[in-house]
Specification:
Layout (H helix, E strand, L loop, with lengths): L10 H7 L40 H14 L3 E5 L2 H9 L7 E5 L4 H10 L6 E5 L4 H7 L4 E7 L11 H10 L3 E5 L17 E5 L13 E5 L2 H14 L5 H12 L1 H20 L4 E5 L9 H7 L7 E6 L6 H5 L6 E2 L9 E3 L21 E4 L5 H12 L1
Helix pairs in contact: 1-2, 2-8
Bound molecules: ligand P1T.
The site of ligand P1T has 18 residues, from helix 3 and helix 4.
Length: 384
């Protein structure tokens, strides 16, 4: 009765079947929500693979198995949030270790590194990883991790994962890619040489803005054992219902990503023609600084995120983000509904006054899967 798909099965097939064999006791086609904190033992240590729900839960196992398959990894580990996943990865390090970080990352990642983990003796250098010379200069004998986002949040810079991974490997450092903005449908960092890939599952993986979660995927068994130990030791795990919600989201990931990409490409091209708009950042635009690398390392499209600035003299960015109807003014991204925000005052407030502060007038949109004509009309009325 196993429905485990072949490794050669397509992405859409694995999204629906990997880790999701029908329930062996009832035949339920969807994985049940095992809402239990503990599991009975026949004798001491004699159990059916589960002892205590912090350590493991069958709903979580299904979700972890599915996302590992989608990222092309050997294993996956789920966490209570993207930040919990990042925090747990960094706990692989010790005082004295050094991390090279892309100079444009989610504000919460910067906050955790700069304000929390630095107090535990881990050093961080924020550098432009699209500049090979800057990357080279940032490497130290103590560098253990190179932390990449691509596309970055919110400047949508494109980092060459294969090139950075090759150099990091030679320097003895692991490469971790935060793949939140791309999703495994558009980009598979492990195949490009990364050691670990992580996500805020809150975004495209869940896809419906109804759950907070994080995930880490890799191939190396030694790193898996150490992360599994930390997952259980620190306990920042998701509950079974949250695992189930992300698992349900994964089933339509391919469908949703295709629509996000088509809508975003059309809106980016349209925005470029608007007199009120000064500059549009979207890796799918042929003139975009990251287009060539993105075209090489991404597939099917360039994602659903666009950032842009306005020409002086017209409406302010603050005014525009408060005027849209369908684009809801909110933090987060990657859901079916479109969102708009001002990173400098919202998601990236923690970077204000730092070396990696984002432009104060930058607008970021997460393009949803609504009808694109309605989205354009909404932006049009907000801009004009
Ligand atoms: O919110 P959480 O699930 O803990 O994930 C944090 C995180 C990690 N990495 C990236 C690239 C992210 O974008 C995020 C969360 N970002 C937002 C909430 C945002 O609006 O940008």
């Amino acid at each position: 009765m196993s429905s485990t798909p072949d490794e050669s099965a397509g992405f859409g097939t694995r999204a629906i079947h990997a880790g999701q064999a029908p329930d062996p006791t009832t035949g339920a086609v969807t994985v049940p929500i095992y809402q239990t904190s503990t599991f009975v033992q026949r004798g001491v240590g004699e159990h059916q693979g589960y002892e205590y729900a912090r350590t493991g839960n069958p709903t979580r196992t299904a979700y972890e198995t599915c996302i590992a398959s989608l990222e092309g990894g050997a294993w996956g580990l789920a966490f209570a949030s993207g930040m919990a996943a990042i925090d747990t990865i960094l706990k692989l390090l010790s005082a004295g270790d050094h991390v090279v970080v892309a100079d444009d990352v989610y504000g919460g990642t910067f906050r955790l590194f700069d304000k929390v983990l630095s107090r535990f003796g881990i050093a961080f250098s924020f550098v432009d990883l699209t500049d090979p010379a800057a990357f080279e200069a940032a490497l130290r004998p103590t560098t253990r991790i190179v932390w990449i986002e691509t596309p970055t949040n919110p400047m949508l810079k494109i980092v060459d994962i294969a090139a950075v991974s090759a150099r990091a490997k030679a320097a003895g450092a692991w490469v971790v890619v935060d793949n939140t903005f791309a999703s495994p449908y558009l980009q598979q960092p492990l195949a490009l040489g990364a050691d670990l890939v992580m996500h805020s599952a809150t975004k495209y993986l869940g896809g419906h803005s109804d759950v907070v979660g994080g995930i880490v995927v890799g191939n190396d068994g030694d790193i898996e054992a150490r992360l599994r130990f930390l997952q259980n030791a620190a306990g920042a795990v998701p509950g079974p219902f949250d695992c189930w919600l992300v698992l349900r989201g994964l089933k339509t990931l391919a469908l949703r990503m295709r629509h996000h990409c088509v809508n975003a490409q059309a809106i980016a091209e349209w925005l470029e023609d608007q007199p009120a708009v000064a500059h549009v950042i979207y890796p799918g635009l042929p003139g975009d600084a990251g287009h060539a690398v993105a075209a090489r390392q991404m597939r099917h499209g360039f994602g659903g995120m666009i950032s842009f600035t306005l020409r002086p003299g017209g409406r302010s960015a603050r005014d525009v983000v408060a005027r849209t109807r369908y684009f809801k003014l909110a933090e987060s991204l990657g859901g079916v509904e479109s969102l708009i925000e001002l990173p400098s005052a919202m998601t990236h407030l923690s970077t204000a006054d730092s070396d990696i502060a984002v432009p104060v007038d930058l607008i970021r949109i997460s393009v949803g899967i609504e009808d694109v004509a309605d989205l354009m009309a909404d932006l049009d009325q907000a801009l004009s």
